[in-house]
Amino acid sequence: MIKITKKKKNLKNNININKEYNIDEAITILKKYQTKKFIESIDVAINLGINPKKTEQNIRGTTILPHGLGKKIKIAVFTQGENINIAKKYGADIAGGSEIIPILKNKKHNFDVIIASPDTMNIVSTLGPILGPRGLMPNLKTETITNNIEETVKNFKKGKIQYKNDKNGIIHTTIGKINFSSKHIKENFIQLISEIKKNKPKNSKGTFIKKVVLSTTMGCGIIIESNNINIK
What we know:
alpha/beta; 2 domains; Ribosomal_uL1_CS; Ribosomal_uL1_3-a/b-sand; tRNA binding; 8 helices; Ribulose 1,5 Bisphosphate Carboxylase/Oxygenase
């Protein structure tokens, strides 16, 4: 039998998980019941009104959160020549060609973003079985295949995130830390929602964003009131 912790009992008794809350109420609740053991991340699950079996309806993109993620972003860059020095200068943790492959294969090294210049994709493609399942394979849609190494590294360092829907048509991503101010959490949240709305497929009918749930690492999910953020 699974033991229910005191915190989970408290959450269950004080939060209506079936009720919709406006974004300000949701953030207040998450902050009230945050754990004291560590600084939790704030996660968002966005249920889209798309058919994920149709390639043209799948959503994939990037956006720069105005207040970042609240953590150090580990970046690996596949590139050549002077771009190696540029990547390192602007914050890449490692940069190079085939010589950095062993580092990427080592599961002890967890990277958040893999960037590649087009002239190294023949090298990067050999890592498909490793990077693909981790969601790290460079892609034109997420702007991680680029000739502008400087700008790309700088943007990811200051809070650029990638997002895409899963096989169920749901986008899962992180928008910051619970120790952010309520204002900053809200602004990061609205930036993400606004960006996803811009990517609505032309052939997607009905309500595009059907449901949004905000949660923390150890907390329960809070359903966000759709009319409150005008997501229909």
